[in-house]
Amino acid sequence: MVYGMECGYRALSLMILCALVSVGSAGCLSGVFGPAPSYNQPATVTPSTATPAPPSIDNLALQPADLPSDYILRDRSLVAYGGISQLDRDLGWRQGYQVSYYRLDKKHDDRTDVSQLISTYTPENMNEVFRIERDALVPAGNNASGYQVPFPIIGDQSIAWKETTGSPQGDITSYSVIFVKNNVFEQIRMEGTTTDYEVLKSITQLAAGKIH
User: What is the chain's percent helix, strand, coil content, to nearest 5?
Assistant: First the structure.
């Protein structure tokens, strides 16, 4: 009977000793209950897979600061889907924007207008978009009332066209530049009794530079 009590005391002593050791090293109880939980682990951050929104098309429009200071904003607006042709829809038209400015010298009865039309399409259709717009700008055969003018290459494809017509106020000259870059088509037009090729070149290059 004494022998059984001694065995019990020894077992109790061993359990107490193991508990004391576990305070410093967690070596005894960890084998029974597993490692102690950690409460200071950094949270796992899952990277976002959301696609960033495309830039707003109005950011591609010429701003008043992009033109000479004597040009005044006349109008700017989104192009409504209901206002485009069926051909544009078939080519994958997505969105459009237009803006126009004018410069007026009443003393000399002189006026110049600058307009910009911006349209975005399905990327794989851009060659076809440019071909159709070029053919519409440049009449076929001997029916042309103007001529192509040398112009810096703008975007992926571009062409510049000049026409001159008479009016009671004098000759009206118009320049039209069309170009495509990435999935964007633009037409920039300058028309009036006074036109400036260098200004047209500058604002067209600025417009193309807004497309990324």
Answer: 35, 30, 35
Helix (H, G, I), strand (E, B) or coil at 194: coil
3-state secondary structure of 151: coil
Alpha carbons 121 and 138: distance in angstroms, whole number? 22
Residue pointed to by tokens 């851009």? 126
Select the more confidently predicted residue: 104 or 44.
Answer: 104
Boundaries of every domain in the chain: 2-31, 57-209
Position 12, amino acid: L
Region class of 175: left (phi > 0), else alpha (psi between -120 and 50), else beta: beta
Q: How far is CA 103 from the centre of its chain?
A: 30
* pTM score above 0.85: no
Closest CA to 111 of 163, 165, 71: 71
- pLDDT, one tens digit per residue, over 91-103 is 999 999 999 999 9
Dist CA 72 CA 169 (whole Å): 21
Q: How far is residue 103's CA from residue 39's CA, in Å, rounded to a whole number?
A: 70
CB 172 within 8 A of CB 166: yes
What pLDDT, in 10s, does the model give residues 145-189? 799 999 999 999 999 999 998 876 678 999 999 999 999 999 999
In CATH terms, the fold of domain 57-209 is: Protein Transport Mog1p; Chain A (3.40.1000)
